[in-house]
Structures are given as C-alpha cells and as structure tokens.
Write a structure and sequence with these properties.
By secondary structure, this protein is mainly beta. The chain is built from one helix and 18 strands.
Length: 241
C-alpha cells in the first residue's frame, strides 16, 4: 500500500514537473552547484561502491525483456577500462543488447563516484544498429564537450521525493529522475530482492514516455519498465562475477 501511494505521488510530481518544464523551457543546463556537475579530480574516489549502483570491475548483469516489439538480451559489463573526462577517471561500462544473434545496440557508459557517494554520469558513446544497415549514434555525449554537463545516476542517499538531472546535452541527452519509493521486496527471474529503490525517469525529448526503474542493494538496476509511451521491459536474470 505504501509503495503504491509513493508511486502515485511520484507520478503526480512528475506530471507537475513536466508541466513546469514546458513553461520554463528545457534549454538551461543543471546549476553548477548541483552534485556531479563540477568535475574536480580531487572530489572523486577510485571505487564505485554506492549501495544502489555498485560497479565492481568484472561483473556482468544479464537482463531479458522486450523492446520495440521484439525480445532482447542485454549484457551490462563493468570493464577494467577507464576514460579521463574533465580530469576525472571514469569507469567504462559496456552495455550490449541483442535479439538472438542480431546486435541491436552497443554502448560505452562512463561513471565515477564522488567523495560524498553520488555516482556521476559523465557521458556515453552509443550506437544503435538499425534494420536498414545504418548506425544511429544520437544520444551520445561527453561532459564538457559541446556544452554537455555531467549528472547524477544515483544519489549517495536517495530519498522520496528527490529529483535530479542525470545528463545534459541539449537536444540529445536530457534525462531526469525522481525517487518515488523505498523499501519492500521484489521478485524477478534472478530471485527475490529486498529494500528496493524505485524511480521514475522522463526526458523532454520524448514527452509521452515515462519509465520506471527499480534498484536493489548490492546489485543496481533489477527492473526497467515503461509506464507510458511504450511496452518496454527488462528484468535481471543473472549476475556474473
């Protein structure tokens, strides 16, 4: 009951924020004082161990689901590679989605954790492989390049009803997130997880789309589901490493 109320409250908050964004416009990047937007190398640590977004090197998370009407398997691997962005050494996370043997999308995401425990999103190099043979790289961005600003992918201490910008490159990457629930169990193919954290995500670039993500301590994302604008879903089925 409490989780349902929190979720409905989060939807209401989301609708209000979207309405405000429509009036105010989406051109302004996040404020400089916001977490993760200042890339000072002295403000970051070497290990990403945020409880709700841990990235131990060598771990692979395997998800199964449906996107754009077709089944897919998504493998997210924390590599031992790094990329220096704005003087900050970021961990490279490789995300590969396939339908059978057909490659659908391959992305390198760049993350770093600040001294307060926030996991910062510093950019991505993404390639979607289309049926016509073309490769779509839209959505790629890197903090500090062409006005792009890093954002928060997971707060150090997420609480309802926190909201934050995850990324910013005008017209390419403008995702925002809202924390709408904490606590309780969730059963997925991987098993039953406890003390989950639930967020909603939205971008002005896709105004009709609202996604839900559920995180579990020690694992990170365990469920992604479209609540509006599609029928996408991905559930954690296996953890390797």
């Amino acid at each position: 009951m409490h989780r349902t109320v929190a979720l409905l409250g989060g939807v209401a908050l989301l609708i209000g924020t979207i309405a405000w964004s429509a009036m105010a416009g989406s051109a302004a990047p996040p404020q400089a004082a916001a977490p993760c937007t200042t890339l000072d190398p002295t403000g970051f640590v070497d290990t990403i161990d945020n409880p709700y977004y841990p990235l131990p090197v060598g771990r692979t998370l395997v998800y199964r689901g449906v996107r754009d009407g077709q089944t897919q398997v998504d493998r997210v691997t924390v590599t031992d590679k790094t990329k220096v962005i704005g003087g900050v050494t970021a961990t490279v996370v490789r995300d590969v989605a396939k339908h059978g043997t057909t490659l659908l999308e391959a992305t390198n995401d760049w993350f770093a954790q600040d001294v307060k425990g926030n996991v910062c999103y510093l950019g991505e190099d993404t390639k979607a492989y289309l049926a016509n043979g073309q490769v779509d790289t839209s959505g790629s961005w890197e903090a500090g390049v062409n006005g792009a600003v890093s954002g928060v992918i997971m707060e150090a201490d997420p609480q309802v009803p926190d909201s934050y910008r995850q990324e910013f490159l005008m017209g390419e990457a403008e995702d925002t997130a809202w924390i709408v629930g904490r606590g309780g169990p969730l059963t997925i193919p991987y098993g039953t997880v406890h003390n989950v954290l639930t967020s909603l995500e939205h971008t002005v670039l896709e105004p009709d789309v609202v996604d839900k993500k559920v995180y579990a301590p020690g694992l990170g994302i365990v469920l992604e589901q479209a609540l509006a604008g599609g029928q996408e879903v991905a559930r954690l089925v296996e953890v390797i490493g």
